[in-house]
Amino acid sequence: MTETDTLRERVAVELTRARERTLTLADAVDDHDLVRQHSPLMSPLVWDVAHVGNQEELWLVRDVGRREPVRADIDTMYDAFQHPRADRPALPLLDPTEARAYIRTVRDKALDVLGAEPLAGRRLTTDGFVFGLIVQHEQQHDETMLATHQLRTGPAVLDAPPPPAPDVPVDDRAEVVVPAGAFTMGTSVEPWALDNERPGHTVDLPAYAIDAVPVTNRRYAEFVADGGYDEPRWWTADGWAHRREAGLTMPMHWHGDGTATRFGRRTDLPPDEPVLHVCWYEAAAFAAWAGRRLPTEAEWEKAARWDPATGRSRRYPWGDDDPTARHANLGQRHLRPARVGAYPLGVSPLGVHQLVGDVWEWTATEFTGYPGFTVFPYREYSEVFFDRGYRVLRGGSFGTDPVACRGTFRNWDWPVRRQIFAGFRTARDVA
Ligand SMILES: [Fe+2]
């Protein structure tokens, strides 16, 4: 097989995996649940289904393949920038049967294009980049659809085995000191890295300490029990205003008795599991209460990628190999984070656990472009979100597919959002 054949095969496998997940998430509920809006924060599930097909049509079928449009008439309806999520249920959306047929037609054409086009000669197709972009886009919407499932009320429809348990308990107050010095942040070489992860550049950091594991339910419950939600001094001014206005008293989906609702089931919260469904303001307030702070994005990435033995930045905390089920809790194999210490093979060289998988981790940093950033392939992918007050999240969650998760991958959201699968860890300066 030629290198291009191997790449085509990989792309086809990834496209199929993403599609199986999309259909699993859609088929889990009936048509009524597919068209209804489960939260004003989310699209109806059937919008996500047709939207992933529409993006695939725009990029793979029309742009790369130069083929006739399948449904040019629906482009506007599925343009995320034209219609905020809250307005999407009122649109004349494709119904579930039409949406499934549409994405099947588009996929057939896209696979045809994949087989016919040289994956070289044009930056968009070199190394299969635009196919990787579409695969990651579908997987990102699958995570969004999973978050919609978590907001949905009614009987449970999703099931998964529990994540692995730690063989050796890890102290959830332990920290790791990262020595001062420069490291390479971002990447110029990862073929499917998105524009906002580029270019690789040197960042020099003073020494700092970072939590060895994400903040656990046990530690977060101490903050709640200590009156953390009643003490303005732990909160930023904006955070306190939001806490009051939104009436926040504990993480989303908690019941206050050591249980939480997860995908329609009320379950016990293991004390040593990473806390989930907190917004940036809650994460920052906890950190202040604990006498610490959120790590910056650069601190998170250095802890995750910097190898003190070689001075190199690696693709993942464990090295350069793609994630497997033994490295990290990714890919919706489980419907919850794993208890801390459950992935000893995923530990970074300095001894930091579970940086990748389990929960997205809020960082202190506002989303912006790296020095030397250039838009590729379009402004709306990331540049329009720079410097607007979005906060960066890192590392992916149990609901993030490995193809959409790297040591350099950047996610962002408003500091009030907590329907995403987000937790955090804390850091402090080291004199
Ligand atoms: Fe999208």
From TrEMBL:
Pathway(s) this gene product operates in, as recorded in its UniProt entry: Amino-acid biosynthesis; ergothioneine biosynthesis
Known EC number: 1.14.99.50
Catalytic reaction equation(s): gamma-L-glutamyl-L-cysteine + hercynine + O2 = gamma-L-glutamyl-hercynylcysteine S-oxide + H2O
EC class of the enzyme, as a word: oxidoreductase
UniProt key word tRNA-binding: no
Superkingdom field: Bacteria
Residues reported to bind gamma-L-glutamyl-L-cysteine: R85, A86, D87, R88, D413, R417
InterPro entries linked to this entry: CTDL_fold, DinB-like, DinB/YfiT-like, EgtB, EgtB_Actinobacteria, Sulfatase_Mod_Factor_Kinase, SUMF_dom, SUMF_sf
Sequence positions that bind Fe cation: H51, H137, H141
Domain DinB-like residues, every copy: 14-145
Cofactors demanded by this protein: Fe(2+)
The entry's keywords: Iron, Metal-binding, Monooxygenase, Oxidoreductase
Ranges for domain Sulfatase-modifying factor enzyme-like: 174-428
GO molecular function: gamma-glutamyl hercynylcysteine sulfoxide synthase activity; iron ion binding
Function: Catalyzes the oxidative sulfurization of hercynine (N-alpha,N-alpha,N-alpha-trimethyl-L-histidine) into hercynyl-gamma-L-glutamyl-L-cysteine sulfoxide, a step in the biosynthesis pathway of ergothioneine.
NCBIfam families: egtB_TIGR03440
Family the UniProt entry places it in: Belongs to the EgtB family.
The protein's name in its UniProt record: Hercynine oxygenase
Species of the source: Actinocatenispora rupis
Native organism taxonomy: Bacteria, Bacillati, Actinomycetota, Actinomycetes, Micromonosporales
